[in-house]
Amino acid sequence: MSERTVQDRVKLHDDIGVAEFDFSDMNLTTQAQVDEFYDEAERRLAASNRQWYFLVIYTNCVIAPEVWDRFAARGKNTNIGYSLGTVRVGTSARTRDAIREHAGRAMFRANIFDSRDQAMFAIGEMRKRREVLGADAAEVFLRVEDIHLSFGGVRALSGVGFQVDRGEIYSIIGPNGAGKTSMLNVISGFYRPNRGQIIFEGKDRTHLPAHAVAALGFARTFQNIALFKGMTTLDNIMTGRSLKMKSNFLTDALYWGLAQKEEIAHREQVERIIDFLEIQAIRKTPVGRLPYGLQKRVELARALAMEAKVLLLDEPMAGMNVEEKEDMARFILDVNEQWGTTIILIEHDMGVVMDISTHVVVLDYGLKIAEGTPDEVRGDPVVIRAYLGVAH
Description:
This protein is α/β, with parallel strands linked by helices. It has helices at about 5-10, 30-50, 70-80, 95-105, 115-135, 180-190, 210-215, 235-240, 250-255, 260-275, 290-305, 320-340, 350-355, 375-380, 380-390; strands at about 10-15, 20, 25-30, 50-55, 60-65, 85-90, 110-115, 140-150, 155-165, 170-175, 195-200, 205, 220, 310-315, 340-345, 360-365, 365-370.
C-alpha cells in the first residue's frame, strides 16, 4: 500500500454529491486490505445519511486475482447501500476485463470511462435523468390496462394490467404459453388487443399501428433473430436509423445534399453504438457468418440505433452460454444506466431476471398472478407453485 491513508482515499464532495474512492497506486493482495478500505468507506457514507454518485479511480491499481471476488462483493454491497450511480476511470486493460467479468456475473453496471472528465460528464447525465424522474413521478410512464387478447377460441391474455415507470428494467416472466410474447406484441403495436388500453406518457396509443408506435420511441428485439443475414453488422444497425432519416428517394439515389449529411450523422451514431457494445471487430462481417451470441448483440445494436425511449427485449439471452449471458446482462444494465432507457424484458433465466430487474410481473395461462419487486415475486407461493417449482 502507498503512504496515503485509507481516510485520504475516501473523499465526499458535498457540493456535487460525489463520493470519490481513490484506489490509484494501490496493490491489493489480501482480503484484509479490501475490508479496511470498504469498512472506512461505508463508515463515512453511513455517517453522511445520504446517497451519492460514486467516482472510483483505478490508476495503476493492482488487484490480486485471489481477492477479486471479495473486492467485487464489497463494492457491490456498498453500491447497493449508498450509490445513486457509479462510474469508473483509470483502469488498466487487465483491471477493466476483470471488472467487466464480475459485472456480468454479479449483475452490476461496469460504466468504465477513459478520463475523469468523461466520468464526471456521465455523472451529470445520471443526475439529469434522476431530476426528470423526480419531476415526472406523478405521471406513469407506461400503463397497461385490462388487456384481453384472443385468437379465435384461444385466449392469450385475460385482463392483464401493470405499469412501468420511466428508467425501470421491468421483466415479464412465466412458463411457456403464459402470454409473455403476446403481451410484448401488444405493447409494440404488432397485435391490437380485443379490449383494454395502452397509455404512454399520458396518451392512449392502444390502436396505433406498429410503425407509429415505433415513431413514439419503442424498439424491440425478437425471440427468433430477425436480421438481414447477407448484410454486414454495420448495415444491419444502419437500418435502425430509418425512422430518423428525413431525405427522400431522389436525394438518396444521388447521395447529395441532405442525404449525404444525414448519412454521415447517422453513421457516427451507429459507430458509437458499435463501440458501446464492443463489436468493432465484426462491423463489416455479414451477420449470417456470426455466432449466435454476437447475432443477438447486433440485434440489440439495431434496436439501440432507433434511440428508443422503451426497449422491448424478447428473450435476449435465449440459446446463449454462460459467458454470453453475462455480457448481455452487462450491456442491458449499461443501456439502462448510461442512456436512461426504460427496458421491458422477457427472459427465462431467473437468476438474470432477479438480479437486474427493478420490478417483475408474472403471467400464467394469460392471467397476471403476481407483480412486485424481485424479492417479493421470488417469495410468492403462487409463483413458486406455477413457475419456479412446488412450494414446500
